Amino acid sequence: MGTAVLTQARILVVDDEPANVRLLERMLTDVGYRQIRSTTDSRQVLALYTESQPDLILLDLMMPHLDGIAVIRQLQIPEDVFLPVLVLTADATSDAKKRALEAGAKDFLTKPFDRLEVLLRIKNLLHTRNLYLDLERHNRSLEQIVDERTQRLLQSEKIATMGSLLAGVAHELNNPLAVVMGQAHLLRSRATDPSLVQRADKITAGADRCARIVRNFLALARQRPPERTEVRVNRVVQEAVELLAYELRTDNVEVALELAEDLPVVWADGHQLHQVVVNLVANAHQAMRHMDAERRITIRTRLERERLLLEVIDTGPGIPAEIQTRIFEPFFTTKPQGEGTGLGLSLCKRMVEEHEGTITADSEVGRGTTFRIELPVVSRPSVPLAAGEHEPLPPIAGKAILVVDDEPDLAATLAEALERDGHHVEIAAHGAMALKMLGQRAYDLILSDTKMPVLDGEGFYTEIERRFPRLSRRIVFLTGDILSREKREFLERTGAPHILKPFDLSEVREVVHRMLVDAGGGPRPESAPESR
User: Fold this and answer.
1) In angstroms, what is the C-alpha Rg of the chain?
2) Structural contact between residues 266 and 377, judged by C-beta atoms closer than 8 angstroms
3) Which of 299, 319, 457, 525 lies at a 20 to 30 A Cα distance from 245?
């Protein structure tokens, strides 16, 4: 410990002899100690101790009113606090030393003093005091880190649980949303009255918006490796803002979109980019919530030197320079306990870097913050096109289709749409009923939900593979649940097409049409006996 640090120590001198007090004060000031308090009245020690909070006490043992032992007991220094008391005494007997040490003194000096010995004892005791304080600070820091990490892990666990609940709620919304979207589509296709057409369009637009919000919830809840598809970044931005629109509007946050129209389509994970934008906009919103000044978030996209740039700019209070270098660290947060995990920006950084991009922050206190993302423009990998891939599909009708879904309204909507295309459609409420129907007659195609009572889609498919193997290549799954690893692995194993709920009926009709055409219009797969 450096001498300069030791001389900053606060020392309290207590002796009923003024000459001894002056001597000790002079000795201490001569070597650089400046924070010295003293008294010749032992009754004042408690008040001086409370006021000055000394690092060391030089205490006479034999004094009127209160002797040194009584003073130590009056101070009630906790046993786990190292506050050295150096006893000064003319009584060199072992009994006096024993009483002083038992009372709580750390060392003693015999009068008359030897200057060198006094200063060395004081230096050693202060050095030990500083080591103790450093250790105490370190322990407190470790305890704080452990407590913060524990709270954040608990918060992360809560977030994971909430994510699962959110995913469950979103999944439950998918079926009625699919019914609304399907019925609006059917109404629109048959309506001739302009007012009905307009009404159907409004229903469709509202249902589409609800469907996008549900998909966004599912994307935020999903924990999975990146899945690259063709992504329009402007659409990602618009959907992220739409997800947060209500909160932003009710807190009077203005959102300005300055989106370049010439952006190329990029090969990226749209769910990850969506989560990045949601996090950045939510952080900007959080930073401005308690401001009386203008609250404005500007999101800007543009193309610059073959790099796609995305900026989220807020008019918030800004980020202090001393913490700007830490904001992307895991678990670092400036939010109050319970309001953040410190994971948002670190996850954003990780996801952007998985796209070989960069994310930086430019901020000044009182002048807002700009987060800047740069992404390489990566095109979809080229895949040789199959011969005739772009040829228009020939018309096809009169096929027998089995719809398997435990939601009667959704199944009826699908049946109506496919019957309008000229097919014969029957409905089963679950996999067991569907197997019975398959044993009674032949079908050209099956549309099946994956989550059903009695026998779910996975069990149903297993039985199809065993009993009706040709139909295992003529099944399309409808699902609103691809969050679980088991469900994704099942869909990948089957190789069967799957359509996510809520869906556009035109998408279902297109997939059905292609499946029937690809089947070649040949002989219908016949029903099979149990022994097959």
Assistant:
1) 38
2) yes
3) 319
- Please tell me if the domain spanning 3-113 has the same topology as the one spanning 226-381: no
Q: Which residue has the tokens 């369009």?
A: 201
CATH superfamily to which 400-518 belongs: Response regulator (3.40.50.2300)
Alpha-carbon distance of 233 to 262, in angstroms, equals 11
* Burial per residue of 39-63, b for 16 or more beta-carbon CB atoms within 10 angstroms, e otherwise: bbebeebeebbeeeebbbbbbbbbb
Which residues does residue 310 pair with via DSSP β-bridges, in sequence order?
A: 301, 373
**What's the CATH class of domain 226-381?**
alpha beta
Can you identify the CATH homologous superfamily of domain 3-113? Response regulator (3.40.50.2300)
Distances (CA, A) of 23 to 28, 114, 215: 9, 11, 81
Longest dimension (CA), the chain: 119
Residue given tokens 């199959």 in the structure block: 386
pLDDT of the chain, 532 residues: tens digit per residue: 556 556 788 999 998 889 888 988 898 898 888 889 989 988 998 989 888 889 899 988 888 888 888 888 888 887 777 888 888 877 767 777 777 777 778 887 777 878 888 888 888 888 888 888 888 888 887 777 777 666 666 655 665 666 566 666 666 777 888 888 888 888 888 888 888 888 888 888 888 777 766 765 665 555 445 578 889 999 999 988 988 888 899 999 999 999 999 899 988 888 889 889 988 999 899 889 888 888 999 999 999 888 999 999 999 999 888 888 788 876 556 555 444 444 568 778 888 988 889 999 998 888 899 999 999 988 777 554 444 444 566 888 899 999 999 999 999 999 999 999 999 999 999 999 999 999 999 999 999 999 889 999 999 999 999 999 999 999 999 987 655 678 878 888 998 999 888 888 888 999 999 999 887 654 555 554 443 3
- Token readout for 203 is 């229903």
In whole angstroms, what is the distance from residue 450 CA to residue 175 CA?
12
